[in-house]
Every structure is written in structure tokens, then in C-alpha cells.
Specification:
Layout lengths: L6 H21 L11 E2 L10 E5 L5 E3 L2 E3 L1 H12 L8 E6 L5 H13 L3 E4 L2 E2 L20
Parallel strand pairs: 1-7, 2-5, 5-6
Antiparallel strand pairs: 2-3, 3-4
Helix pairs in contact: 2-3
Amino acid sequence: MKADVPATAMGDIAFNLLIFFVILARANDDSHLKWNPAEAQNLEGSKGAKVTVVIDIEGKIYLNSQQKSETELADAIGDELGDATAGNRVVYLKIDKNVTAPRFEPVIEAISQAGGELIHILNENHNTPPPPQPAVTAAAPASP
């Protein structure tokens, strides 16, 4: 006797998985937040992070797309990181380029207090010319 899985059950399973991954993907989506990243040259890539903190154009602080105050940020980051081991406690920090130090320094301190490993997200600037290289002068050949 041969047992087959009904085709309708497979469709239901696929649909449930699709809904699960769509909801999971939207959980950490911060694409609706408006921020202009600072720019730099020679940037390194980074692996994924469990936590993302954004300071937007208006100076509002968001933790994984949820608005937070400075006072509750350290505890909230600690809760998100949980018992993650070193190397797995990465926190992405996205700061609008016009936000001043008095606004973002407490956020950096909160990430540190929570034990997060800070990675600042920047845009690589390809339009800025590279720094000038020192000039090399050739010595005149010695006469015989």
C-alpha cells in the first residue's frame, strides 16, 4: 500500500511558510525611517546584526524600528541581545549625517552599557578624490 501526501496539504504548508517568512522579514525592516548616512572611504563590510539602532533626520531614536527614549535604550538593547556570546552581540548604528554629538553620544553609551558590539553604518563615498600621494623625485645620475 502506497501512502501519498495530499497536494492540498502541501499547498497549505507552503502558504504558512510564506506568511511566516514575510512576517519575520518585516520585523526588522527600518526602510521607512528617514536618515542620511555619513560618508567615508575604504569601508569594510560587516556580518548581520541582531539589533539595529537608527537616529533619523528628526533626531528620534529607533531600536529595530520601534521608537525608544534614551533612558530605555540600554535595557531594550540588552533584552534584544539576550545571552548572545561575544561576536554575536553586533549592533548596527545608523545616524543621520546632520545629527550632532550631544544626540548620538548617549546612544553609543547605551549600546556599550548593554554589551553590544557597535558597527556604525556609513555610505562609501566614491566621488571624493583619494588623498594626495607624496611626491617622488628622481635623483640625478652620478657623473663618472
